[in-house]
C-alpha cells in the first residue's frame, strides 16, 4: 500500500437496522493522515466505524481498510487498527496498567512488551500517576484517556476515534485534542476522528468527510471547506399581516437560505458580501419590521445545510 | 531536558500468531479469581470430601476393622455426586459475571476490536469456568483413584475397574461442559451477575420442581428428562455402569444435555457481538 493510497475506501455501502437505513449507498475514501468524520447524532458515523471494524455486516457494498477487504480479512484489519469506542468501555475489575497491558496481549503483543507499552501509553495519555487505580474509579475524562491508551498500545497503523472528547471538561478536551493532533502530525499515525464538533475536527484533522442522514454530505480538505461564502444571521421580524411566509419567500427569491426555528427566530444565510444591509433592504421593501438581528456563528448544521444544498 | 521522553513510540517487536487470544482471556480470568480469598476458601472447602474419602480409602487399606469401607466403582460415582453442590457454587461464583460484567462495562467492543473472533472470546471465557469446575470434579476424582492405588499397593482394583478413569473423565467433562455453557449463555443475557446467578438457580430448581410435580401426579419417573440434574444423574449412572434411577432411557437424557449445550451455543452466538442492535 503506497503512502498516498487512501487508508479506507467505501463503495456503495448500505447498512440498515431492521427497516431503518443507517448508511445509504455511501461511497467515500479516507486519505492517509488525519481525517475527520463529521456529522450530527444519527448521521451514521459510528455505524460506519463499526462496519469498518466488521461489527456490522453491510447489506450491500464493499469496505476496504489498509488495502484489505473487511468481509474477507477482519482479523488482519483489527490487528492493525486501534479503536476508541464512543461509550464508556473497560474490562471490569482491572487497574489501568493491567487493562491496557491486557488489551496489548489481546492484540498479540508478548506479555512483557504489552506491560512495558502499557506504562508508556498511560504516561503518554497523562494517566501515569493514576495507572494503578481501578479503572472503575476513574472520572469521565480519565476513562476517555484510557480508552485512547488501549487503542494505541499495540501501535496501530490506523486509529478510529469515536467522539474522543465526549464528556470532557474544557482543559481535558484541549489535552485530548493535543494528543490526537500529536499522533496524527508528529507520530505518523493515520486516524479517523468521528465527532459532531466542528472545532475538534478543524484542530486535529486535515481532511473531513461530512455525513448527514446516512449519506456523505460533503468531503474534502478542511481548508477548502472553510472558505467564506457569506454570513449567517439570527432574525426575528414582525410583518404587517402577521404572516411570515411571503417574507420568507421573498428572501428565498433573493437567493438567501432561510430556516425557521422554534421560537419565531429565523436563521438566514446571506451569501456573498451583502450581509445585514441586504437583509434590511429586503425587509424595508416588504414593510417588515426587524425586531432582532444578530450575526450567528456558523454551526455544523449550517455546514450541513450548505453541503446538502450543493449536492 | 527529560532524560527519557515518555512520548509515543512505534513498536518494533514481534506479535503472537492469531488464534491464541482465548488463552490471554483464560489466563487473566484465572489470575483474577485466584486472587480472591473468598473464592480460594470455596475451592478449599470443595476439596474437603476428597480428604474424607482419602482417609476412608487409607483406613480400608490399612485397618482390617475398616475393611467394610473399601471403595468400589460406586464410591467414585457417589463422590462426583457429592461434588455437585460445589459445582453449583463455583458455577454461580465464577460464571455469573463472565459475560454479564463485560456487557455492563461495554467490554465486548474492546475485545472484538482486537484480532479476536467471537468464538475465541466465548472459548476463553468458557475455559475459565471449565478449568475451575474440573478442579472441583475431575481432578479430585482422578486423584482419589491414584490414592486408592497408592494405599492398596497394587493395581488390582484399577485393573478390575479399568473403565473408571474414562468414566470419571467422560462424566466430569460432560457435566462441566453442560453447566459451563448453560451458565455462560445465561450470563450473556444480562448485565447483572447477581440476576444471572438467580436465574441459573431458578432454571435448575424449576426443572427439578416440574419433574417433582410430574412424578407426584404420574407416579412414574418417565418424565425425568424435564430435569437437567436428573438427566445428568441418569447419564452418569449409565457411564459408571450402575443401575439407572429413572425410567427415562439414558440416550434421551443425553440428548437433552446435548440439546441444552446446543441451545446455549446458539444463545451465545446471538448475544456475543461487538455491537448490540435493538430493532
Architecture overview:
Chain A is an alpha/beta fold and 311 residues long. Chain A folds into 2 domains: 8-220, P-loop containing nucleotide triphosphate hydrolases (Rossmann fold, 3-Layer(aba) Sandwich), CATH 3.40.50.300; 230-310, Alpha-Beta Plaits (2-Layer Sandwich), CATH 3.30.70.260. Chain A contains 11 helices and 14 strands. Chain A has a 6-stranded mixed beta sheet, sandwiched between helices. In chain A, strands 2-1-4-5 form a 4-stranded antiparallel beta sheet, with helices on one face. In chain A, a hairpin with a 2-residue loop joins strand 4 and strand 5 (68-69). In chain A, helix 4 (111-124) packs across helix 5. The longest helix of chain A has 16 residues, at 170-185. Chain A is elongated, with a radius of gyration of 23 Å. With 279 residues, chain B is mostly helical. Chain B is globular. Chain B is built from 13 helices and no strands. The chains are: A alpha/beta (311), B mainly alpha (279). At the A-B interface, helix 2, strand 6, helix 3, helix 4 and helix 5 of A face helix 1, helix 5 and helix 6 of B.
SSE blueprint and pairings:
The complex is a heterodimer of chains A (311) and B (279).
Chain A: E1 8-17, E2 20-30, E3 34-38, H1 45-52, E4 60-65, E5 68-69, H2 74-80, E6 81-84, H3 96-106, H4 111-124, H5 140-152, E7 158-162, H6 170-185, E8 190-195, H7 198-204, E9 207-212, E10 215-221, H8 222-225, E11 230-238, H9 245-253, E12 257-260, E13 266-271, H10 275-285, E14 289-296, H11 300-310
Parallel strand pairs in A: 3-8, 3-9, 6-7, 7-8
Antiparallel strand pairs in A: 1-2, 1-4, 4-5, 9-10, 11-13, 11-14, 12-13
Chain B: H1 21-34, H2 37-46, H3 48-62, H4 73-82, H5 84-104, H6 108-111, H7 118-136, H8 138-152, H9 156-160, H10 164-187, H11 193-218, H12 228-239, H13 250-271
Helix pairs in contact in B: 1-7, 2-5, 3-8, 5-7, 5-10, 5-11, 7-10, 8-10, 10-11, 10-12, 10-13, 12-13
Amino acid at each position: 500500500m503506497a503512502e498516498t493510497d487512501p487508508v479506507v475506501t467505501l463503495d456503495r455501502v448500505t447498512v440498515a437496522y431492521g427497516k431503518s437505513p443507517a448508511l445509504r449507498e455511501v461511497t467515500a475514501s479516507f486519505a492517509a493522515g488525519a481525517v475527520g468524520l463529521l456529522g450530527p447524532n444519527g448521521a451514521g458515523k459510528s455505524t460506519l466505524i463499526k462496519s469498518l471494524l466488521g461489527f456490522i455486516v453491510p447489506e450491500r457494498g464493499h469496505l476496504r481498510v489498509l488495502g484489505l477487504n473487511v468481509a474477507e480479512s477482519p482479523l488482519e484489519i483489527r490487528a492493525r487498527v486501534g479503536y476508541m469506542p464512543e461509550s464508556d468501555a473497560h474490562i471490569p475489575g482491572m487497574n489501568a496498567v493491567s487493562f491496557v497491558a491486557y488489551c496489548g496481549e489481546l492484540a498479540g503483543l508478548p506479555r512483557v512488551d504489552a506491560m512495558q507499552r502499557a506504562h508508556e501509553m498511560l504516561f503518554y495519555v497523562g494517566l501515569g500517576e493514576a495507572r494503578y487505580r481501578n479503572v472503575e474509579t476513574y472520572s469521565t475524562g480519565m476513562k476517555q484517556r484510557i480508552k485512547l491508551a488501549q487503542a494505541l498500545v499495540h501501535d496501530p497503523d490506523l486509529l478510529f476515534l469515536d467522539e474522543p472528547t465526549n464528556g470532557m471538561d474544557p482543559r481535558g478536551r484541549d489535552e485530548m485534542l493535543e494528543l490526537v493532533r500529536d499522533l496524527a502530525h508528529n507520530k505518523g499515525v493515520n486516524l479517523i476522528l468521528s465527532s459532531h464538533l466542528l472545532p475538534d475536527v478543524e484542530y486535529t484533522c486535515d481532511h473531513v468527510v461530512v455525513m448527514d442522514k446516512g449519506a456523505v454530505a460533503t468531503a474534502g480538505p478542511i481548508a477548502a471547506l472553510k472558505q467564506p461564502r457569506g454570513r449567517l444571521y439570527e432574525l426575528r421580524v414582525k410583518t404587517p399581516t402577521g404572516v411570515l411566509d411571503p417574507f420568507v419567500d421573498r428572501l428565498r427569491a433573493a437567493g438567501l437560505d432561510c430556516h425557521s426555528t422554534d421560537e419565531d427566530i429565523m436563521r438566514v444565510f446571506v451569501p456573498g458580501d451583502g450581509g445585514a444591509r441586504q437583509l434590511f433592504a429586503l425587509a424595508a421593501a416588504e414593510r417588515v419590521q426587524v425586531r432582532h438581528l444578530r450575526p450567528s456563528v456558523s454551526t455544523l448544521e449550517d455546514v450541513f445545510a450548505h453541503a446538502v444544498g450543493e449536492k | 531536558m527529560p532524560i527519557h521522553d515518555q512520548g509515543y513510540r512505534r513498536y518494533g517487536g514481534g506479535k503472537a500468531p492469531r488464534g491464541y487470544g482465548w488463552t490471554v482471556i483464560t489466563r487473566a480470568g484465572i489470575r483474577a479469581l485466584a486472587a480472591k480469598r473468598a473464592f480460594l476458601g470455596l475451592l478449599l472447602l470443595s476439596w474437603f470430601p476428597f480428604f474424607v474419602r482419602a482417609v476412608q480409602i487409607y483406613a480400608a487399606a490399612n485397618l482390617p476393622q475398616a475393611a467394610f469401607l473399601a471403595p468400589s466403582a460406586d464410591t467414585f460415582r457417589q463422590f462426583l455426586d457429592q461434588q455437585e453442590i460445589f459445582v453449583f457454587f463455583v458455577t454461580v461464583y465464577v460464571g455469573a459475571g463472565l459475560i454479564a460484567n463485560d456487557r455492563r462495562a461495554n467490554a465486548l467492543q474492546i475485545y472484538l476490536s482486537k484480532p479476536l473472533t467471537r468464538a475465541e472470546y466465548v472459548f476463553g471465557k468458557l475455559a475459565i469456568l471449565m478449568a475451575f469446575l474440573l478442579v472441583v470434579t475431575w481432578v479430585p476424582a482422578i486423584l482419589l483413584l491414584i490414592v486408592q492405588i497408592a494405599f492398596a499397593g497394587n493395581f488390582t482394583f484399577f485393573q478390575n475397574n479399568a473403565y473408571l478413569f474414562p468414566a470419571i473423565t467422560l462424566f466430569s467433562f460432560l457435566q462441566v461442559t453442560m453447566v459451563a455453557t448453560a451458565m455462560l449463555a445465561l450470563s450473556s443475557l444480562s448485565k447483572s451477575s447477581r440476576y444471572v446467578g438467580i436465574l441459573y438457580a431458578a432454571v435448575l430448581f424449576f426443572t427439578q420442581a416440574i419433574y417433582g410435580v410430574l412424578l407426584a401426579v404420574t407416579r412414574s419417573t418417565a418424565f425425568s428428562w424435564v430435569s437437567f440434574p436428573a438427566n445428568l444423574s441418569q447419564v452418569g449412572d449409565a457411564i459408571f455402569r450402575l443401575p439407572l434411577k429413572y425410567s427415562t432411557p439414558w440416550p434421551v437424557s443425553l440428548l437433552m444435555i446435548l440439546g441444552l449445550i446446543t441451545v446455549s451455543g446458539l444463545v451465545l452466538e446471538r448475544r456475543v457481538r461487538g455491537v448490540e442492535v435493538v430493532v
